[in-house]
């Protein structure tokens, strides 16, 4: 029996991508499908980085296509292609940056910076080009977390080169000021310093720039969420009521300025006793999920309260780099893929595709 393109497409429609939960045909992931003489050739192109999943997806597709009667050779390649998506109206995009993800929290100390750094490293481990901007002006922790010392270089006037740590391009006010002297800046100074840092850093060809926002929902945060060209925001919270209450304010703030909420990450969800393995919900349970269902936003995943997360980030080598194959890194990578899948589902930025329209009086 002759194998047809329709046969193959029917099979592909039955294969559900375990990450996106969408079948491979409907997600538009199948490119260059050809069938000749019962040999099948196709490419699976994902809109998000997922290097750790390529083999599993290839195996899934080949196993399913093998069941077609009389099929001969099957050639399947899996890759990612990350494109730029739109940001809030009236804000200028950054050259060299396709997508900006703000990581925010309603209150301090919930583990926002730790989550931001691990998510950036997870996206990078999955094959994306990633940068991170430490906008946490009062407590810039990025230099320490990524183990970066020294000052950034300036190759041209009014620009700074990003520093590099664990494969990420990084910029932080912490690189420019003395770490031990407290910052006593007023709101407008903070926002203009951060905007300058964001725009004057010469980001090189990034798929994602993670912005570690200052904690809270005050004027500084509101101004930043209006001025920084954000593709989507991730809110980090702990499960206790007070943090959730503040996280709700964060959610509202981004909604107000027209930035889509990608979802919520619950940090320090449970504590697993290292000696007996007993699991305790130190800060209560189910709060993040309930908040997501109340506000109709996605729950992206949760991380346990774990000593190694703190020790590794304090030592300049966050968990995703310190134990890339460990259980916690897998959670960070899974959350990172969920974030990137949702970004891929947003409207694409077409500004580079439109011709310049010039109106002339002749
Ligand atoms: N899941 C976790 N398990 C254990 N320790 C954690 C976890 N997440 C974060 N921490 C630790 O908690 C402390 C606060 O984390 P972090 O600096 O990331 O919080 P933050 O929300 O960014 O705080 P702020 O915004 O006030 O700077 C750090 O010492 C960090 O290592």
Automatic annotation (TrEMBL):
Task: Write out the function statement from the record.
Answer: Binds and transfers iron-sulfur (Fe-S) clusters to target apoproteins. Can hydrolyze ATP.
* Protein name as annotated: Iron-sulfur cluster carrier protein
List the Pfam families.
FeS_assembly_P (PF01883), ParA (PF10609)
- Give the family from UniProt: In the N-terminal section; belongs to the MIP18 family.
Q: Which InterPro entries match?
A: FSCA_dom_sf, MIP18-like, Mrp-like_CS, Mrp/NBP35_ATP-bd, NUBPL-like, P-loop_NTPase, YlxH/NBP35
Transmembrane parts of this sequence: none
- Give me the residues that bind ATP, please: 106-113
Q: Report the NCBIfam families cross-referenced here.
A: PRK11670.1
The answer to keyword RNA-binding applying to this record is no
Q: Which domain of life is it from?
A: Bacteria
Q: Which residues form the MIP18 family-like domain?
A: 6-76
Query: Which keywords annotate this record?
Result: ATP-binding, Hydrolase, Iron, Iron-sulfur, Metal-binding, Nucleotide-binding
Self-association state and partner proteins as the record states: Homodimer.
Cite the SUPFAM superfamilies for this sequence.
Answer: Fe-S cluster assembly (FSCA) domain-like, P-loop containing nucleoside triphosphate hydrolases
Q: What is the lineage of its organism?
A: Bacteria, Pseudomonadati, Pseudomonadota, Betaproteobacteria, Burkholderiales
